[in-house]
Fold each of these.
Amino acid sequence: MALTLIEKILANHSVKSVVKPGEIIDIEIDVRAARDFGGANVVKNLINNNLEVDDVSKTFFTFDCNPTGSDQKYAANQQYCRLYAREKGIKVYDIDAGIGTHLVIEKGLAYPGCTVVSTDSHANILGAIGAFGQGMGDQDIAAAWANGKSWFKVPKSVKITLKGKRPDNVYAKDIVLNLLNKFGANTLLGYSVEIYGEDVDNFSLDQRITISSMATEMGAIIILFPPNEKIIKFAEERSGKKVKKILADADAVYDQEFELDMSKFVPMMSRPGHPDDAIDIKELKGSKIDSAFIGSCTNGRYEDMLEVAKVLKDRKVAPGVVLKIVPATDEIWQQLLNEGIIKIFKDAGALVSNAGCAGCAAGQVGQNGPDEVTVSTGNRNFAGKQGKGKVYLGSPAEVAASAVAGYITTLDDIPDKPAEFSAKGGFEKAVKRTRTTMKKPAIIEGKVWLIEKDDIDTDMIFHNRYLTITDINEMGQYAFDNLEGWEDFAKKAEAGDVIITNKNFGAGSSRQQAVDCFKSLGIQAILANSFGVIYERNAINAGFPIMTYKDISNLQLKQRDKIKVDFERGKVTNLKNGKSIKINSFFDVQMEIYKRDGLLG
């Protein structure tokens, strides 16, 4: 029986010589990878179920979602995986290496005809070399690591033949956007797609990767390119092994076949929200942008970066526009550095980050803010995927040209003078507020929290992972959640409470949130032996009462006793036993700011 390319690959990795669409089979997995996203859960699934890794030589970690180490949770997961890898002898491609799906190709781990699974939904990028790649959940990956096999339902196959030659102004990204325009997000749902054509056979590895990487956005299981001699040679050089060319049988039966005239393809961009909402870029020309991103597993390749360099050489990014560039792998990064291309990027005004997934991974380079308009070479522009703004998808050349122009344009239509932002409009104005004059009390009463520790710093008070919070009402819940023994303080605290602590409270950074979190909780005051210099200013300027004391032992305080504090006289009384002491009172400026409810009041 004649087989399609996917059927042949799956049959070669099963106990059967022939497989049919709809049939469920167990297949051997040649490469089993887990990223920093999901990797920790893979390990936990193995440990919790007393499972061991089947073959460590075929098993890998790839840390590509957050190679900047900018997120504490990612950092914790990465280190957890490193420790497991050291114990089991598993190879780790760490934060300096690049995107995992690219690495398995680049390092020769994968080759035409092999099978690869990863916690990356774009593992089907392996179709670029005629291999089977599949993204899977952490339980699936754990099972593959333990058993060396996984079950699959053999998909139906579709054959697409691209007739004619690719126009000079149409890039690989434009090709896949033209396909998305034709097929949408679900016409090819669940299919394995094979792409053929006389000019297609000339596509480079980088071009094939771009197209295969967006199979997921088309709903397809995979987009497979039959490997040509260049791909075979590349795979043999990288893997160090003889690679057999695996092709579909000439009389293979496809569920559907399509012929498209590639010579009629045009440069395209996807409008925000849906990758398949791709239209002729001419319809978007002139749309003002705020930022541009070049990278991702779709367009972070060397050839992509060369196209960008052609645009940026001797040019500058438009005033007010931010351009971020992230190569796919460190090998590509080093090549760009050695050839002076990184300098071209920097001279143009771009930010260049270390290799990784970038904009697709929340918190890393490429994210945008509310109402920000971004042109991106990524594969997804779903709402919230690359930030809170709007994202258009296009080719590296078109994105770079738009970054220079300050608006969406094409390579052949870059203006001599870029567009600039209007000085008026678009910025949120302050809401007019009617201030009510309220007499603030000079004497307060409240129950105490005795926190008998020195040098409580601002990271212990309000950790830097919460610094993006700007609404004071949200800050209270995180007060002290990084202070050992007091992590649940925000849940126990009551409005009107008073904190009494030791020396150097508020040491460390200048973050105002370390004061405002207590205001958010309704804490009335903090008494300490001393305060960090910046913390003291921040508290006073916020109109938040702080006072210093030398010794409060005579008060004989116990946890949750109620006290009275007189800010003007500097007197503290334990209302339970009636004992009082003198402490340092408010000084004049402090009292003035307190009565105004803050420096800006």
Amino acid sequence: MKKTTQRIIILASLIAAVGLFVLFLSDILIPFIRMELANDIDGAKELLASRGVLGFLSVVLVEALQMVVVFIPAEFIQISSGLSYPFYIALLLCDLGVCVGATIIYVLVTLFRFSSNAYERNEKKIEKLAAKVKKDRGTQMLLYLLFIMPLIPFGAICYYGSYRKMKYTRYIFTVATGVIPSIVTSNLMGLAVRYFIANDLPFWLLILIIVLLAGILLAVLFLFLNRFYFRQDECTPDSVFMTGFFGALHRFCRHRQRLHVDDEKIRDLQTPYIVLCNHESFFDMYYMNRLLSCAPMNASYVVNKHYLSHPLIRKIASKSGAVPKKLFYPDVAVPLQIMRMLKKGYPVVIFPEARLSVDGRSYPIVDRSASFYRRLKTDIVIAKIRGAYFAKPKWRRRFFRTDIFISADRVITRDEIAAMTDDALNRLIDESIAYDESKDPVGVFRQADKAKGLQNILYRCADCGALYTTRGVGNELVCSACGKTHRLNERYLFEDEPFSIGEYYERIRALEKKELPELRLEADVDTVIFRDTGKYRTREKGHCTLSAEGFSYRSDSVTFTIGFDALPALPFSVDAEFETYYNGDQYYFYPRENRRQVVRWALIVDIVKEMRDEEKR
């Protein structure tokens, strides 16, 4: 069937679905809710009796058409029907609608070879899941699994089943029975809303109960699938835990960002391989997952071990094939885990900067690992994320929707790596990873609060040098000491010098470097300690010092000093804390006064590290 004809059919189906739903919504659902709010039970029953056939028809046809169109969510009509009708009627109507829609899809595919763009977008995902199911289970068992997994729309699953040339009787029986768990769940949500409206119970309690029940249902579902179907994938990136994590993350992120993925250079690249990428935002793992969706196997990620501190999360991460690493601390287990994942054929993703960008520019790579990469004897993919820093930098709470470009920029083959020296490979990686968001702006930001929170990294006035006098107000960074104002334009650039956040931060660096010989920072802190053994989290009060000797900490339980040779960086969370490791335990230090200073502590360590590296050269 020609694409134009397909688009006409999809458009007509969409208009019909919207029209029927509006009819259903305005003629039945809204009056019904009003009667329930007025406790007019008799009126509600009379309404359903008088509009019964029309309401029944609306539910069936809307459910059927959303199957054909695919991208119309089925849950809303299912919840609405559960809200409007008795449970057994709502279940029957929704299941009948699904069967009608599945039949239409079967006819379109079998007779006209009709294809859906929405199905094509999910085809790779379905094929990946199909590869995990044992061949002797067949297409029917795969469809059952797909229907109960909250990852792929029902319509896309039916398109897949139709293309597999199943017999219609077997196909429609599988569809009719496979969707029941999802329909029951949605109808029960609608039934719960009816109950809460009728009994005038708090809305927040309803939401809490639905969230808790959904969480329990998902947990049981994942445990069931992992135990009986995907056990061979346990402790690998293809585990049901990793698939579920990225599936849920995709549902959360897909409407918040406009992603542009360029995977041309790795589309046919044979796994395994190492992926090295710049680190711009908290969503970088998700971006890499979208880039590597072309790979036949999911990727393993080297992640900050702190995020896995809780024993339960650590257990789940272990079963998901993640590689936990302590930031800027020797960890001999990490190389072994990376090699183990590569040996099993999985790509491994590493963010070599190990920290989120503070100012839109890449951090220098501290752990220069060319010799390790050479020993792996595998290809290295250099990936690049553009646009993510300004979408959600570490200093701003609000997410800005914008274009984000994810690409595989270069593939360094194992033969090229073998011919390079360690220094040459390190330089190539450094140059390939390096990126300055302000020099390559890809988004347009018309928001009126672009500078909000910016003072937490630009803590010092670049004009007068005053400490902690800057404040982000609307689109302006204002110094209360000298009155100087720097305004951000729609490209997130300042309208006068310094022209970018990175250049402003560099001026602060120059001021701190000039004062470094006499500098001594001290702070009373609340300390949180994460341990590998025993009680995983403890708290205490202490005092931190940063001077020419290095970083020092003392409390009633411990006193230690870490020299700059053993302190390559001081990671921090904006306006909150800075952190380091000592004897394998991770220490989080929260200043009791002026938490804006944490970025200054981190910057001073970066400056000292840079000066020492220059001396060694």
